């Protein structure tokens, strides 16, 4: 071939030419890492350069520090392959891996720093749906007679203590068996979830049941990994809440009734101390009927005021 001939690109080449870089042959571990970092500098997106250089550095550092064996590395790759296969079609196992290693919680914490007296965030989880029924004040998100009665009430406020009228609250929980409605094959209508708005004084109130702890799916690669590490696969009891209001940063959070033995070791690391709440036991038939419960005299009362930050407050805290 003459020096002036243009050689055809290999089949399926992506059209990018060899880099004009002085790259030594990767004859040592350090040269492998150094070459890859130099190549990553070619990324046209500045943020991509930052993210992937850090990722590559940390991954290579992990491999070198642990002196991982070829068999261990292949075993890890096989785990990821099995994870991918078990995740079809919605990526649940991949999401679980992020959750149980605390990565989802870490991203949430970094993106939602604590701001004064504002309610802290928690994890959204995989069971939010858009089909929650609209409720009026005092109505129930849950089927009656399945679980221990609970009434949830409070206000939605600004950081300055002013009420936020018309805030939209989405809320959902498991049934008394620890399953979300989406986990029941016979689900025909939404249950244990609802959507309501605060009144002119920022108040809200609805009937529910006391949430119960539950295990994340135990039949996949992630739970087998947890077992090999001697870790349980249980989430403590919690009530999910998402609040929207114009001008305010969306709050994605959950409330965790105290006393659950899994609170501090939540398998997905979603609990924050400020979100652990006390339930008050009420044993008064007249009060139960007033709250809309048709049977019994006892119920648990959860009183909690949510405090929202404005978009400007959130953006300012995010920058610091």
Automatic annotation (TrEMBL):
Family to which this protein belongs: Belongs to the intradiol ring-cleavage dioxygenase family.
Needed co-factor(s): Fe(3+)
Coiled coil (residue ranges): none
A Pfam family annotated for this UniProt entry: Dioxygenase_C
Gene Ontology molecular-function annotations: catechol 1,2-dioxygenase activity; ferric iron binding
Keywords, alphabetical: Dioxygenase, Iron, Metal-binding, Oxidoreductase
Domain named Intradiol ring-cleavage dioxygenases: residues: 143-308
Bias type Basic and acidic residues, positions: 1-11
Top-rank taxon: Eukaryota
GO biological process: catechol-containing compound metabolic process
InterPro entries named among the record's database cross-references: Catechol_dOase_N, Intradiol_dOase_C, Intradiol_dOase_core, Intradiol_RC_Dioxygenase
Domain Catechol dioxygenase N-terminal span(s) in chain numbering: 45-115
Protein name as catalogued: Aromatic compound dioxygenase
UniProt cross-references to PANTHER family, sorted A to Z: DIOXYGENASE, PUTATIVE (AFU_ORTHOLOGUE AFUA_2G02910)-RELATED, INTRADIOL RING-CLEAVAGE DIOXYGENASES DOMAIN-CONTAINING PROTEIN-RELATED
Organism of origin: Russula ochroleuca
Xref: SUPFAM superfamilies: Aromatic compound dioxygenase
Keyword Zinc (UniProt): no
Region (Disordered): 1-21
